[in-house]
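To the structural biology subgroup,

Please find below the input and predicted structure for 3-hydroxyacyl-CoA dehydrogenase family protein, which we are adding to the shared reference set this quarter. The sequence is reproduced verbatim from the submission form. If anyone notices a discrepancy with their own records, reply to this email rather than editing the shared folder directly, so we keep one authoritative version.
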Amino acid sequence: MKRVGVVGAGVMGTGLAQNLGQCGYEVILTDLTDEILAGAAQQIRANVRMGKLLGNGGPEFDPELVRYTTDHGELAEADFVIENITEKWDLKKEVYPRLDAICRPEVVFAANTSAISVTRLAGLTGRPDRVLGMHFMNPVPMKPAVEVIRGWHTTDETLRTAEELLEGMGKEGIVVADAPGFVSNRVLMLTVNEAVYLVHEGVAGAEEVDRIFKSCFGHKMGPLETADLIGLDTILFSVEVLYESYNDSKYRPCPLLKKMVDAGLHGRKSGQGFYTYH
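Predicted structure (tokenized):
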């Protein structure tokens, strides 16, 4: 594998393009508009500069390795494709048949999803055996492990191909079964949602909740700081998927979370969430 297609130039797609470029892979980064792609290129440059300043930038980044394009047809050149668009089924279901028509039959598709069924996505293609989940964590270049999700039809060969790519990126793949939320989000989203309920009910403020987790349990970030980093809109999408998938009231989204998302308070990316960012 030399050339990796990355679909979606949001926070995760941008981090992936940076990480892949630093590890010597050619990247085809696609999105809907040139403005989004220009923002991704700017963010990658900023991330690389900040990494150098902090002394943890990782391998040297060659900007020539990343191609930015709104033409998804260019993904025909990719040896592996990672899809990173918004966690909404109605959006994702439009992408996979298009990728299936564009890419060579042997190319593996990885869904970078935190909650949506990999088996269901694979069913949209003519290659369900070559579709799997790769749940990367944010920020991608700094995280050493990836949750790898095996769908119903995913073959051992597909898993080996994905593990080969992850090894080339300096990451460990941890394989889990395809179930809503998998391991990380089934636990994390429930924790974050419950932390929001604590603020909603006036049990504690956001700072107090986070301080308890950091001081008492040694977490680097509290659950509400984590929510701001991930994006409260993404948190809400994920909790709603879990609620709908399991029909279990423990996943009922907190009204405060819904209200904050409606108000545009999405966390770090909007400048305001449970904390203010400048």
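Summary notes: The chain has two domains: 3-177, 184-262. The first strand starts at residue 3 and ends at 7.

Regards,
Lab coordination
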